[in-house]
Amino acid sequence: MNRKILSWCLFDFANSSYSAVIAAVIFPVYYANQIVGNEAGQGDLWWGRAIALSMAVVALTSPLLGGIADYAKVRKRLLFFYTLLCVVSVSSFYFLQRGMIIEGFVLIIIANIGMEGGLVFYNSFLPEIAKPSYQGRVSAWGFGIGYAGSIILLLAALLLINKGLINSVWPMVALFFGIFSIPAFLFLPKDSGNGSRIHRAAIDGLRYTWKTLKKIWANKEQRKFLAAYLIYEDGVNTVIVFSSIFAATTLKFTPEELISMYLIVQITALIGAFLTAKPIDYQGPKKVVLMSLGLWVIVSVAAFFVHEKGHFFIIACIAGLGLGTVQAASRAFYTQFITEGQESEYFGVYSLVGKSSAVIGPLVFGFMSSTFGSQRPAILSVALFFIVGLIIIYTVKGGGPNVMKNR
């Protein structure tokens, strides 16, 4: 593993602290139950709004910013700006207290924009640092190392929570994210632009991006892939942002039990990511995506019926196997459509679709939970996203073995 690939993977190691602690396990429950109050589903509603709005902002700005990054050659600088935005916002969670609904709402939006917006530029480095025959593996390595970061941060968070220092968890996450992202800024390919073209890049980048969008839209298979990704990623994102709230509210998991469960999920996700690293390249990402989506259908339906904590632990472990797998395989699948020199633009569109998918699901979940006074109908609705996505992705031509590209 060379220096560029290692530093790229370490950025995943760094930002997974946010994904695990802030987006998935501890902070959603803290905000919904402690800051807002979730007795009538209001916590679900406010959390869903925050995630949906932040994802909408990222979705709408990603193609334009991707075009600017490619045109002005400032991809790494934009990645640094978004990372800094996330780190500072997460540090500010320390000052939140019960009843500070709006303050928390605003900080969540800013932090999530920083995290998710930066992934546009982070993902766009993949085709540049790895040959086509290795992109599936490198993509999976990134997710796998990321899960290791999640495990470390969750264990550290558990220690602080047991000492009654839950507010200290947020600056710890920010510090971890900041420190381990440094290698990416040192060793990933440098920006070739000096920044002097940024004032023109917005207009020219928008025009450039519009051409890319038309080119993508004209490609039937790429269009179908993005449609499928839009739908099934909505299900994945909804599960990520609401699984811990479901466990805490419906199944009465304690914070310690939540962290223990998610640690197991991260371990199984790490195993799944590394086990499928080579199959993504040798069997093709399409087969891996289809297998993962089938697994997610089973998981979401089973979660509707579960009443015992032990059973939910088992379901969560199965879900973990498919978590990193579907994301790594989807990213590798999409790289097969990319035109050389337009990586940021293409991943800007990829982000537009992926983040747009995180708008509908959380809103639907929050609405159904508050309307029915139960999270079970909400969790069952997620299965539909996976079923429809699976059907569409099955019809996409392509997604074959990446190793064939170098033969």
* Net shape: globular
Order of helices and strands: HHHHHHHHHHHHHHHH
Q: How far apart are the termini?
A: 22 Å
Mean pLDDT, rounded to whole units? 85
Structural class: mainly alpha
Strand content: under 5%
The Rg value, from CA coordinates, equals 20 Å
Under CATH, the topology can be stated as Growth Hormone, Chain: A
Number of domains: 1
Keywords:
mainly alpha
Description:
The protein has 407 residues and is mainly alpha-helical. It contains 16 helices and no strands. It has helices at 3-36, 42-72, 75-92, 101-123, 126-129, 135-162, 169-180, 182-187, 198-218, 220-249, 255-275, 277-282, 285-305, 309-335, 343-372, 376-394. The chain is globular, with a radius of gyration of 20 Å. The two termini are 22 Å apart.
In short:
The chain has 16 helices and no strands. With 407 residues, the protein is mostly helical.
Secondary structure elements and pairings:
Blueprint: H1 3-36, H2 42-72, H3 75-92, H4 101-123, H5 126-129, H6 135-162, H7 169-180, H8 182-187, H9 198-218, H10 220-249, H11 255-275, H12 277-282, H13 285-305, H14 309-335, H15 343-372, H16 376-394
Helix pairs in contact: 1-2, 1-4, 1-6, 1-7, 1-10, 2-4, 2-9, 2-15, 3-4, 3-7, 4-15, 6-7, 6-11, 6-14, 10-14, 10-15, 10-16, 11-14, 13-14, 13-16, 15-16
